[in-house]
Amino acid sequence: MMTTLLKGIAASPGIAIARVFHLAAERFVPVQQAISDTAAEVERFRSAVALSRDEVEAIRASAEARLGADKAEIFEGHLMILEDPDLIEAVEQKIADEAICAEFALHEIAQSFIELLQSMSDELLRGRAVDIEDVSGRIMSHLRGVPHRELAGMTEECIIVARDLTPSDTAQLNLDYVRGFVTEVGSRTSHSAIMARSLEIPAIVGAGAAVHDIPADAFIVMDANQGVVLIAPTEEELANYKDMKQKDDHRRVELSKLKDLPSLSKDGKRVELAANIGKLEDIQRAIDNGAEGIGLFRTEFLYMGRSSLPTEEEQFTSYKYALEKMNPKPVVIRTLDIGGDKELPYMELPKESNPFLGQRALRLCLDRQDLFRTQLRALLRASRYGNLKIMFPMIAVLEELLEAKRLLEEEKQKLIAEGVQLAEHIEIGMMVEIPAAAVAADLFAPEVDFFSIGTNDLIQYTMAADRMNETVSYLYQPWHPSLLRLIRFVLQAAEKEGKWVGMCGEMAGDSTAIPLLLGLGLHEFSMSAGSILQARELISTLDQSSWSGHANQALTMRSTDEITQFVERTRNGVIQHD
Amino acid sequence: MISKTFTILNPTGFHVRPTKTFVQTASTFPCKITVLNKGKKVNGKSSLSMLTLGIAVNEEVTLEIDGEQEEQALEALGKLLTDIHE
Question: Is A238 exposed, middle or buried (0-12, 13-18, 19+ CB in 10 A)?
Fold first, then answer.
């Protein structure tokens, strides 16, 4: 027999092997019936709502006990829907006005909300339609006197297959038996996907209508790392996946153990693994992935997608939120980096023929001091709510840094004169993304508290190769000796002055770069949150002092290929000796 | 009747959680509360209707409040609109 393959969206990682459990879709479409005693019909509807409220309250309490208060929160939302005037009163009104049965009135009104929400462009809001389906389905069951579908009665290990899972479904999943689930519809942000990740069970969503054709008692394999479901796998496939599952589970457990541990090399050298963020909601993901700080907070999101500049107050609120949420861990906030490929239509900046070499980032801020001062004031005012570090981007010459620092100091003095309370000390740093700043890092080092190397731009400026231009993409070589030498310049200059150096950019989370960067003495590695735990694991296997020697050896090599092969060999060699 | 316009700062827009707090607060006032956004007008005491507005970050929202305690309602609800919610 041939194995059948289904593909979907990998929504929560892991591998599961078990029998399927089809959760029947609840699709009841009532017919319109005329009612003579509308008052009694409204009463019948009210008691169905009351029964639903009791049930939801019970589910909420049990979800809170089993899964914690934040997982139970969704049911508070359900209780609110059960009291929503535009739903409940509207149904009562419709029954009275049109003299129709409660089932039909409820269906019509709930459906209009469901359709409105499903048509929205925001994925999260589209996902809320399922809450209304869930709640109105529950009221409907009471009106009809049939039980609402329940999942609690499961007795053997299974993988649930359904059109979608409602919050009531997921709250009642018996985790002793449910090994994973596969749904027809959904996306990475749908309720079921979020729930699966927080319950840490594998999930594949959006696998299409074919999920309903999986035979009722089929034994299936779901690989939620790849988003693949195997129906009727062969003996060989089954054995492979069992083996993979064991390794995968083990690795997941090992990685999650590292979440709250410090980042230490094998020989005990401490480094900091931080996260790059571009939106406030990324902070939670950074925390969940064990970030020891925010190494790069891009502030462009505050300026984009709107029609005028953000006010000081608006910026202050955002910075304060980030600082409080991370406190006492550090948050490096980069001042506005607009221009280049990032435009703000409302600023009406002149078109430049070479925007990456034009008036971008700090160059623009020094010219448009009004907008720069507004941001500096907001940052300074937020400083007392956490561990703020301010970083200036795109500095080429010392005068730019000194001018930025002068403006910051002026705003600081003004605020102090106004009686505003500020943090006692705020570290000031600069990005190193222009080769001129890297080779002359010793000129800057006495004037900053830290450097952060922005590799994406540093590579394109060093190689003079546009990173968007595919014909020159071969020049995007993070491990090239030229880059590593620039990085060493910066580290040596900082060390002489006792300053620390971080790196924010793709390279900081790269498994080939990490051993070299650790060896060269980098202090902070800032990367996308999802790479942190793997980086922490890798660093724990590396001996900093021996990599210091290896890195210096790598710097004398002739090409990227030579270096990457050398790192690969050395790294694997070290692991094999263990 | 009084009215005022606010800009949303919450990074994810005015979604489920902020809407919940907003509607709970709105429901404690006796006055009529209307929320305007992108040319649509809804009842500020209905979370479902509020959600169908799909209010995103940096968008403008106007509150129209009419009736008893309208001043207090405007102050409390305006603050919720401009807050950053967990």
Answer: middle
